[in-house]
Every structure is written in C-alpha cells, then in structure tokens.
Design brief:
It comes from Spirosoma terrae. This protein has one helix spanning 4-8, and strands spanning 26-29, 37-52, 57-59, 62-63, 66-82, 87-98, 118-127, 136-142, 180-189, 192-200, 219-220, 228-236, 259-278, 281-301, 306-318, 324-327, 335-336, 349-353, 355-365, 377-389, 396-408, 412-427, 430-447. By secondary structure, the chain is mostly beta strands.
C-alpha cells in the first residue's frame, strides 16, 4: 500500500499517521448515509486436480487411467446495489468449469474455447414495505430456488471445496447453471426466512447437449411446457442469516454469527418427465422434489475464534420412474471406450436420480491466527452423500475429507480435498458398483 512518503518524499508525522486498515469491498455509496449504494465483487477459483479415471475413460481419443488438469471452477463478477429505499438491482456474470476441454470435446468439429462466459443472474427487486424486510418481490434470471440451501449456494463462502451439486436438481437440463426465469417473493418475518417462486423453465431442447431418447426410464419431456413452483423456508432460532442478495445462502460465517436453522423446501412441475414403456404407451409424470434439513454455524469460543459448521438433510427426489443422470464436475475426460456404460467417463457418478438422498457435512474452525498474526488458520471438514436411487443395485456413497487454509477468511483461501466415489457396470436396466476411485484437488480462491 502506498503512503504519502511514496509520492511526496516526506514520511507522515506521528500526529498524522493513521492505522493501516484494509478496505474489504469495492463499494460506491449513492447517498451520504450509505443506505443507497452500488457494489462490485470478483471471485476466482482455480483447481489443480489429480483424478483416478473410471474404467473405459479416454482423453482426446487416448485411454487414460488417470488425469491431471488445471481449471477454473468458477470465475465470476457481481454487480448489485440498493438504488433507492425500495429498488434493488443484482447482476452476475462469469464462467464455470473451464479446463483444457472447456466443458466438452468434439473430435469431429472445431472447438471454440471462448464461449463460456454468460449472465448468471439479472434481477430487479422491489421492497414492498419501506425499511422492513417482510416482502421483496423480484423477477428476472435468478437462482432463487426451492428444495434446499445448497440449491442456491453462495459459492464464495462454502465451507468445503464444492457444494453438493445434486441439490441443484435440474442444473443445465431445464435451467441455465441453476438459474431460471422467475417471478418470486422473499422476506424475513420474525424467525421465518422464506422464498417462493413461479418459474418458467427452459425446454430440454435448449440445453446444448444431445436430446435424451424415449424408453422405459423417465427423461425430461420433449413435448409440452408447464410452469414450475418452488419454495424454501428457514426457521432461524438465533441470529438471522444474510438476506441482501436474492436467493443466495451463506456456506459458513466463520463464527461471526450464531445460526441454528430448521429448513424445508420443494420444487414441483406438472408433466415435466416422460417415459415410454412400449410403442404407443407414453406416460407423463410430474416432477416432485422436497427436502428437510437442519443447519448449524456458530462460534465455540469467541475469544479464540473457534467455530463449528454442520448440516444434515434428507431429500426425496422424484423425477419419474427410473430417472438417473451421471455427472462429473468439470469432467477431465472427453470420451469413453466402447462396451462401458454411457456417461460414466472421467470422474462421473450417478449424481441425480429418482429416490432418496441423505447429505451431511461437518467442519471445525481452529483458533484465530493459528500461524501467527495475519497468517490465517485452518478449517478441516468432512461430508458424505448417501443415495438410494431406483436404478442402482446398492446405496451410492460419496465420501469427502478436506482442509481449508484460510489465509484471509473467504477472501483468500487454499483448500485440499479428497473425494472417493464408486464406478459402475450395467446389469439389465440397473447399475451395479464394481469398485471405487479417488480424486485429489487443490483449490486457490481469491474473492473481493
């Protein structure tokens, strides 16, 4: 940081010297009180990752037992502000899952590695009761979602390396990276934090991937269009959660708040799914998803700065009979050898499906300035996803252990994360686990 001695050649006197305090945000006040403002944030999450490939994996047409890749999990900017007492604007722009394959590889065509960045959110919001946060009405492209807190996560503040993506239930199928065109209402009344939304989902035909094929297993409907209804509700026993930006839920407050919540949410859509059991026998099914959960994030010893984070949730996910979708985050593989189950390449596992899921996580924040003043501290964590999906012969188990080095809270942190997952073979119409693979990732996050 430059002082007056850098520019004027004269060091400050003892009387004029002021403490060197970092400003932690890029904010422009629109009035003298600061109640009207506009703010800009930037986030970059860089991954260095070693992955044990699922059987049959190929990378640019060569078999690969393992891969090492460097990528950008998320690169984002937010622009938002309270324009007047009642008017709020929120815009987010960025890219995701940018590695050497740029989210996909087509061996028969030229690729374009410059097409990833897009608007994630573009929302206008109106505060109905002046100076009261009882009711905010908004509309636009937004992540205001039902189902769970992890369906609309604040990715800059998550405790672990990544969020449980299965909770972003329709991601890149009938939405745009979990964002949808919606009209919503949200607010906080006493201990209750709520949001409800009427959503206009995108048709599966605009997902940018090959269309699913009709068969006895449910897929997203290729005919018809129906609105989606969503809701998420939190009962906050102690401190209230952050409520400034539309929809986003903080991952961990690092001991700054005492949060104990009971949460519930849902997503429902008429005739969202379809299956064909036999020629001429077409059945449309509603999509019905709901969850209940508890969330805790609170200090243990305020003087030392220790804190704990815990979550336990139960999810009922009904996408129609036998729906199952494999997915791998920023998949480092481009293809699969013949004879292996489709979609199982790289780090993919059956992330979404009709059935029931239990997800839990736990983390412990060690004392403040563990390595000396200004040198940060550590936060180890574990989490697990257990799923009973209709097309799996056994319970799916995804297990993760990790360690955050919080150099400057969430503004600068390193995360080392190990994930263990099963891989599968097909037995008739079902998938049976045949072994397990691991993935080790180092993330460096910078956020302001």
């Amino acid at each position: 940081m430059r002082t007056s001695s850098d520019t004027l050649g004269t060091p400050p006197t003892a009387a004029s010297a002021k403490p060197d305090v970092d400003k932690n945000e890029l904010r422009y006040n629109l009035n003298t009180s600061g109640s009207h403002f506009f703010k800009v944030t930037f986030l970059n999450q860089t991954w260095l990752r070693f992955n044990q490939s699922n059987p049959g994996t190929t990378v640019i047409q060569e078999p690969k037992d393992n891969t090492f890749d460097i990528g950008l999990r998320r690169t984002r900017m937010q622009l938002f502000g309270q324009i007047s007492d009642r008017v709020f604007l929120y815009i987010q722009f960025g890219l995701n899952n940018f590695n050497y394959l740029n989210g996909g590889f087509n061996p028969t065509a030229s690729s374009n590695r410059k097409i990833q960045a897009f608007f994630h959110d573009a929302v206008g919001e109106y505060l109905v009761f002046k100076n009261k946060n009882y009711l905010n009405i908004g509309g636009g492209l937004t992540i205001v979602n039902g189902l769970s807190r992890f369906s609309a996560p604040s990715v800059a503040t998550i405790m672990s390396l990544d969020v449980p993506v299965f909770a972003q239930a329709t991601v890149d199928q009938t939405d745009e990276f979990s964002r949808k065109l919606s009209l919503y209402a949200r607010g906080q009344i006493g201990h209750l934090d709520y949001r409800v939304a009427l959503t206009d989902p995108f048709p599966i035909q605009t997902s940018g991937t090959a269309l699913p094929t009709y068969g006895p297993n449910a897929i997203y409907a290729l005919k018809g269009h129906h609105k989606q209804f969503q809701g998420f509700f939190m009962w906050q026993f102690f401190d209230k959660e952050a409520h400034q930006t539309p929809g986003y839920n903080t991952g961990t407050y690092l001991g700054a708040k005492k949060i104990v919540n009971f949460e519930a949410g849902f997503i429902t859509q008429k005739n969202a799914m379809v299956r064909v059991d036999a020629p001429g026998d077409t059945t449309y099914q509603n999509m019905n998803l709901w969850s209940v959960a508890s969330f805790l994030d609170m200090p243990i010893n305020r003087e030392k700065g220790t804190a704990v984070n815990a979550y336990l949730g139960y999810f009922h996910t009904d996408y129609g009979k036998n729906y199952l979708r494999f997915n791998g985050i920023m998949n480092p593989a481009s293809g699969l050898a013949s004879g292996y189950p489709a979609g199982t390449q790289g780090n993919a596992f059956p992330m979404f499906g009709t059935g029931n899921v239990v997800y839990g996580q736990f983390g412990y924040l060690l004392k403040r300035d563990l390595f000396g003043p200004g040198n940060g501290t550590l936060m180890p964590y574990v989490h697990a996803q257990l799923a009973n999906y209709q097309r799996l012969t056994k319970t799916l188990g995804i297990y993760t252990v990790g360690l955050n080095y919080l150099i400057k809270g969430h503004n600068g942190k390193l995360t080392l994360d190990y994930q263990n997952r099963p891989y599968y073979e097909t037995i008739g119409n079902q998938y049976a686990p045949q072994g397990r693979r691991g993935q080790l990732t180092l993330q460096y996050q910078v956020f302001i």
